[in-house]
Amino acid sequence: MENFNFCIGVDILFGKDQVENLPSTIAPYGKKVLFCYGGGSIRKIGLYDKIKSLLSDFEVYELSGIEPNPKVDSVREGVKICREYEIEALLAVGGGSVLDCSKAIAAAAYYDGDPWDMIALRRPIKKALPIVTVLTLAATGSEADSGAVISNPITNEKLSLGAPALMPKVSIMDPTYTFTVPANQTAAGCADIMSHLMEQYFVPESTYMGDLLVEAVMKTIIKYAPIAIKEPDNYEARAQIMWASSIGDNATLCCGNKLAVFGVHGMEHELSAHYDLTHGVGLAILTPNWMRYVLEKAPDVVRPRFAHFAKAVWEIEGTDETALAARAVASVRDFFKSLGIPMTLTEVGIDDSKFNEMAEHAIHSEGLEYAWIPLNRNDIVSILKNSL
User: Fold this and answer.
1) Is 78 in contact with 85 (CB distance < 8 Å)?
2) What is the pLDDT of residue 387?
3) What is the predicted pLDDT for the residue at 356?
4) Which pLDDT belongs to residue 4?
5) pLDDT at position 6, please?
6) How many angstroms from the chain centroid is the CA of residue 355?
7) Residue 43, pLDDT score
């Protein structure tokens, strides 16, 4: 079991009507608040008006229009507002994109240069404005972790940043706010959660406890994702998925594991940077093709792990590791397909014209040569082509 430090500093308020606690949770950090959100969904469900009413005693400024795969221009605009009005706290209301953008703003508010330089040059982040979140989409786990991902359409890059200072101070999580999330977004969010779990599971070394914890959360998504899609206002399904999203990406499950870069994330960042593809959709398309490829590339390492995955998570019986591993790959693909997610890049309008460029950049920026099964440029191109 590896050494680890474990400190989750976010105060999570989970359940119906927890937003009523918003004023008391923000007040300790100040009265000048930057309210960050995306499109019109929070208005449609009445959350926008609710928040404005709750914060009537605060000095609230707004940054709206934050897009999926949040763009650095939104970060720049947010930093401008923070400096002009001396913002004391950020309120991020939405899904992972809004939360990630808010984290970048919180850090860049204390950075002297352009926010993209801070991200691309990986400048140390030692200070950030306090962040409070209200989650409306279960997917990335950003409400309970210290990382973020920002895109730059000019350079076709999607890069990560992270630091303990970016951990939200408080995250309000009311599953009812996800009732109106469309089926395709619910499916993509669940694929994102599954990918975060695989990132902690397909590693050089894992612990007995870690395996059991990850397997339990995987099985939770497998059970409840179809229910949430069929019955969007099923509170239990939405609640289980929302909590799985948070606990699946804040290191709770993998303490003591020997971790490594997860190749699928690095490749997908290239796809969504170039094509603005929904992150969860890209992950769902790539994952089974990555599984097939690494199974063939390093069978002695991969086959027993995939076979265990087949038995523990998918409850497939048998003793033939080769057959079990193959069925594990098929089970992942079939699950994502059953949620209505496209399963080829061709279906989402992506061809092979940029594969070489994306592979080269992924090696440079994502460190895929240090993955559980190391990937070189040719490996990445092959997996992308197999995903067409």
Assistant:
1) no
2) 97
3) 95
4) 63
5) 65
6) 23
7) 95
Between strands 32-36 and 89-94, the pairing is: parallel
Supply the pLDDT for residue 306: 98
**For residue 337, what pLDDT is reported?**
98
- Counting as low any pLDDT under 70, the low residues of the chain are 1-4, 6-7
Query: How far apart are the C-alpha atoms of 99 and 93, rounded to whole Å?
Result: 7
CA 16 → CA 91, 174, 178, distances in Å? 19, 5, 11
Q: What is the pTM of this model?
A: 0.94
Both tokens of 52, joined, read 């404005």
> Within its chain, how far is the Cα of 177 from the centroid?
18
**Three-state helix/strand/coil letters over the chain:** CCCCCCCCCCEEEECCCHHHHHHHHHHHHCCEEEEECCCCHHHHCCHHHHHHHHCCCCEEEEECCCCCCCEHHHHHHHHHHHHHHCCCEEEEEECHHHHHHHHHHHHHCCCCCCHHHHHHCCCCCCCCCCEEEEECCCCCCHHHCCEEEEEECCCCEEEEEECHHHCCCEEEECHHHHCCCCHHHHHHHHHHHHHHHHHHHCCCECCHHHHHHHHHHHHHHHHHHHHHHHCCCCHHHHHHHHHHHHHCCCCCCCCCCECCECHHHHHHHHHHHHHCCCHHHHHHHHHHHHHHHHHHHCHHHHHHHHHHHHHHCCCCCCCCHHHHHHHHHHHHHHHHHHCCCCCCCHHHCCCCCCHHHHHHHHHHHHCHHHECCCCCHHHHHHHHHHCC
Distance from the Cα of residue 64 to its chain's centroid: 21
Question: Residue 39: its pLDDT value, please?
Answer: 85
